[in-house]
Specification:
Structural class: mainly alpha
Shape: elongated
Oligomer: single chain
Distance between the termini: 54 Å
Mean pLDDT: 80
Helix content: 55-70%
Strand content: under 5%
Low-confidence stretches: 1-25, 287-291, 442-447
């Protein structure tokens, strides 16, 4: 049956009147429509990369706004479930929606956030909210497909610049990242798992690097691999996994973290396989020429950090008006990290402090503008991705220095985890000054 805005407004007013009178509406068409709206919003937010806590809160605000206060919500990485328990001894209604494709689209996430805010403020009738959600789902992406592929390739080129690669290394990293992305898309269309797509992308970058070594081009080819690694490390999932875990959503957080670790393992496998084969065939891969991020505030590294953050934002469909903010945040986090490294602070603690700073600043700005903090914070931490450490560890591991290689890989993993933890700690520190709305959870009983 087709709904009309006028009918939705009348139903919305009726539910409001019932709530003011202390009576809860029965399980009718409006209740089912509310449940469907909340589930679709939750599915969209989860697919867009939001935390489980934020999804839970948004769904709860919607059900309360449209007259269903007694609901139970369950959010996992693969599905959202909602159960409504009406009073008067009537049976509960339970429904679930599964998330089959998780594609980050921060522009769509912002639109959903605005819809939830309008509904919670009693400014959007139920029927109008459903029509608005349909418009959000059907809206085109904020950037064309070629721009997304170019942004990911630019991310690889900027990563090469960040670790001291020259113009040739940057161009090679751009081409290698583009080839890896297009090859991964081709494999994905044929049903190949994401694990092998990531491994192939890393292997292509390593092949380009090995080719530069054999050609004697006189450049630092390691920057190519590091740029490709930085482009493919799942920074968004890493941040969200730590946020979910620390917030108490252990199932979702652990699942996200395992997904991140599998992706990193795939990248390391692609690098390690090609480096080992190249060494066996006599390629001059030298342990004395390992890439080390210069931690410099020089212009190439500063521009590289800004480009990484901006390209990361474009690839995740952040609206254009926030790209300067992302670039400035990338510079801020890189400068902080570089200064701490100059004070001889190890990589993992320096990364955690820099991520905490951008977590505080990004969350404060996001609250001021009334948008999810994830949109502003996540692109800014991209320059901190431990691409150089990962390559150095695999090179050590595959060329005969296994103990040293394992230690470097452990440092890389610790650095990656410090990024997500630092961002969440920064947001929590801001709560001490300016508390934010969050989901109330039962306290654990003490032994």
């Amino acid at each position: 049956m087709t709904e009309h805005p006028g009918e939705g407004a009348d139903a919305y007013s009726a539910m409001e009147a019932a709530l003011r009178g202390g009576h809860e509406p029965g399980v009718g068409a409006d209740a089912y429509a509310t449940l469907d709206l909340a589930l679709r919003v939750g599915e969209l937010m989860l697919a867009g990369g939001e935390t489980a806590e934020a999804v839970d809160l948004a769904m709860r605000r919607l059900t309360r706004a449209y007259g269903l206060p007694h609901t139970e919500i369950d959010v996992t990485l693969a599905a959202v479930a909602l159960s409504y328990r009406p009073r008067g001894g009537r049976p509960p209604v339970t429904a679930e929606r599964r998330v089959r494709r998780r594609l980050p689209d921060y522009g769509r996430l912002l639109a959903v956030h605005e819809l939830v805010e309008a509904a919670a403020a009693r400014a959007l009738p139920l029927a109008a909210a459903r029509f608005a959600l349909g418009d959000v789902i059907g809206r085109p992406a904020g950037y064309p497909g070629w721009a997304l592929a170019g942004a990911l390739s630019l991310l690889g080129a900027a990563g090469a610049a960040l670790v001291g690669g020259g113009a040739v290394a940057m161009a090679a990293a751009f081409v290698a990242t583009l080839l890896g992305d297009r090859t991964g898309a081709w494999l994905g269309r044929r049903g190949v798992a994401d694990f092998f797509q990531a491994a192939v992308a890393a292997a292509i970058g390593t092949l380009v690097s090995v080719a530069l070594v054999w050609s004697g081009a006189g450049v630092r080819p390691e920057g190519v691999i590091v740029g490709v690694v930085i482009a493919h490390i799942p920074g968004r999932a890493l941040v969200v996994s730590m946020q979910d875990g620390i917030a108490g959503d252990l199932v979702t957080g652990t699942t996200r973290l395992v997904e991140v670790l599998f992706t990193i393992t795939a990248i390391l496998s692609g690098i390690g396989g090609v480096v080992y084969a190249a060494a066996r065939f006599g390629a001059p891969v030298s342990l004395g020429d390992l890439p080390r991020a210069p931690s410099s505030l020089a212009l190439p590294q500063t521009l590289g950090a800004a480009l990484i953050a901006a390209a990361f934002a474009v690839y995740h469909l952040v609206p254009r008006r926030y790209l300067p903010v992302a670039a400035a945040g990338g510079v801020l986090v890189w400068w902080t990290y570089a200064e701490l490294r100059h004070l001889d602070l190890p990589a993992a603690p320096a990364t955690a402090v820099a991520a905490t700073l951008v977590g505080v600043a990004g969350t404060a700005l996001a609250r001021r503008r009334g948008i999810p903090a994830l949109v502003l914070v996540t692109p800014c931490i991209a320059p901190l991705m431990p691409g150089s450490l990962m390559y150095r560890g695999m090179l050590q591991l595959t060329t005969g220095s296994a103990p040293r290689g394992v230690l470097i890989l452990v440092e890389a993993m610790a650095t990656a985890l410090a990024i997500g933890a630092g961002v969440y700690v920064g947001a929590e520190l801001l709560r001490l000054v300016r508390p934010a709305r969050r989901v109330l959870r039962p306290r654990r009983a003490r032994a």
